[in-house]
# Entry
Amino acid sequence: MIELIERSKHTLNRKAIVANDKTYSFQDLLEASESVAAFLLNRNADLKEARIAFLVKPSFEYVALQWGIWRAGGIAVPLCTKHPLPSIKYVLDDTQADFLICTGEYQQFLSPLKHSNFHLYENIASKKTELPDVEMSRRAMILYTSGTTGNPKGVVTTHNNIKSQITDLTTSWQWQAEDQILNVLPLHHVHGIVNMLCCALWSGACCQFLPAFNEDEVFDIFSKGQVNLFMAVPTIYYKLINRYNELPKTKQEEISKALNNFRFMVSGSAALPVSTLEQWLSISGHTLLERYGMTEMGMAISNPYEGERRPGHIGQPLPGVTVRLADEEDNVVEEGTQGEIQVKGANVFSEYWQKPEETQKTFTKDGWFKTGDIALLNDGYYRILGRNSVDIIKSGGYKISALEIEEVLRKHPDLKDVGVVGLPDPEWGEKIAACLVPSKDEVDIHVLKEWMKERLPGYKLPRTFIQQEDLPRNVLGKVTKNELKKLFTVI
Ligand code: MLC
Ligand code: AMP
# Structure
C-alpha cells in the first residue's frame, strides 16, 4: 500500500525483513522496489492498475515485488506457491495478468504456461525512474478466495482498504517499532500479508519469514529470543503443542521461557478450540488473542489486547469497523438472537474482480457486507456459531469450496457423481471428505489421489473417501449434505 512505502522513508536504517539468515533494512526495500517499479514501467508513466502476478515464496524478494508493483501503479496478484499449474493458470486468465514474475526456483514449473510477459526476479536490474503519484483510492491487490459458486473469486482491495485494515490492528494491538514477528503463513492471504507483514512494516517493526511451517524450526527461532510476536491459525498451535509434548523437559523449559517474554500471541482464520487455547496457555503463559476476519474485509472483530480474552469468543468490533447481526431478510436481529455477521467500514473490499453480480449479491441494499458467518452476541462478546453454507469448508485455516472440488472430480471418467463435505477434526478444524459414485466398478483411491494432485493444491484434497451407488437427496433431487456427513460417521 502506497502510504506504507512513504512511511518507510522515516525508518530507513531500521531492520525490516529477516529471511534466509539475512537481514534487510527499509532502505534495502526502497531500493529493490524502485528497481522493480522501473522495470515494470519500462519508460511508461504509470501501470494504470495492470495486474502483476508473482510466484515467490515468503522472502525479501516477495516484499520488493509487492512494493515495486504498488509504486508503479499496478495491482499485486500474489500466487500460491502450493498451487498446481491449472490453479495458477486460472488466476492468470481471470485477472488477465499483464506480467508474470517468479524467482528462479519456479521458472521451470511456470514455463509451460508460455505467458507472453514472463520474467525472472533475478533479471530485474537496478534502475531509477520517475514514479507515478498513486492515489489511495486506486486498486492495490487481488487475492483469490473460495465461494459458494465453484470457482474462486478475486477479492479486490484498494490502497485505502488495506490502510484501514492495517491501522485498525496496529492501534488496537499496540504495534511498536521494537516488535519482531515470526511469519510462517503463506503470502497469498490476508493473515500473512496484512496482519503480519504489512502491520510490522507500517510500525517500523521487523517481519521474519520462515518460508514453510516446521515445528522444530519455529521453536528454534522462538528460543533465540529475537522474536516477540507470533500469529497463526489454530492448526499450527495444535501442531506446535503436539511437538512440544514430544520434546525432552530441558528443551520444553527453554521454549516456555522464551515464549514467556513475548508481547502477545494471536490465533485466527478458524475457530480456536478452547482445549488448544488452554494447552498453549500452560506452555507459553499467554492467553491467545482470538480475532475474526475475512479476505474481503481484513479483520473485523477481536478480543481485547488489554482486558479479558474470552475463550471460544472472537471479541468486539475493531474501532474502524461497524458490525451488526441480521436475519435472512437482512433485518437486524433482536438482542440475544443469532444472526449473520454483516460489516461496514473502510476496511471492506470494493469488488470481486470482474464479477459485478456476485459483488452486488454479497452486499445488502444499504451497503452492509454479508459475511455468511453466523454469530451470537453473548454478554458483550461475539461468538461464532457456524456458517450459512455447508459448502464452505475451513481446513488448516484455508477456506475451501466443496463445489470447486466436486467440479474437478466430476471430470474424472470413472465417476458418475461426487459429494464433498467437511468433517470436524481436532487438528485441521475440518477434514475434507468425498463420497464417490463410480460409473461402473469401484474406483482405485490411490490412483484417484494422484489424478487429483495434478489438478488441486494439497490443502484442497479430500482425505477420507467412501463409495456409494448414489448420494442422499431430498424430494427435489438436491444432495442433502448433512445426511451425507452422517454416512462418514458410520464407517
Ligand atoms: C495438508 N495436509 C493436510 C491438509 N493440508 N491434511 C489434512 N487436511 C489439510 N487441510 C497434509 C499434507 O497432505 C501432508 O501430508 C502434510 O499434511 C503436510 O503438508 P503441508 O502442505 O506441508 O502442510 P503443512 O505445511 O504442515 O501445512 C499446515 C499449515 C497450512 C497449517 C501450515 O495448512 C497453512 O499454512 N495454513 C494457513 C492457511 C492461511 O494462511 N489461512 C489464512 C486465510 S485468510 P503427507 O501425508 O503428504 O505428509 C483468513 C482470514 C483470517 O482466513 O481471518 O485470517
Ligand atoms: P477467508 O475467506 O479465507 O478469508 O476466511 C474467512 C473465514 O474464516 C470467515 O468467514 C470465518 O468463517 C473464518 N474465520 C476467521 N476467523 C475466525 C475465527 N476466529 N473463528 C471462527 N471462524 C473464523
Q: What stands out?
A: The longest helix spans residues 26-41. The radius of gyration is 23 Å.
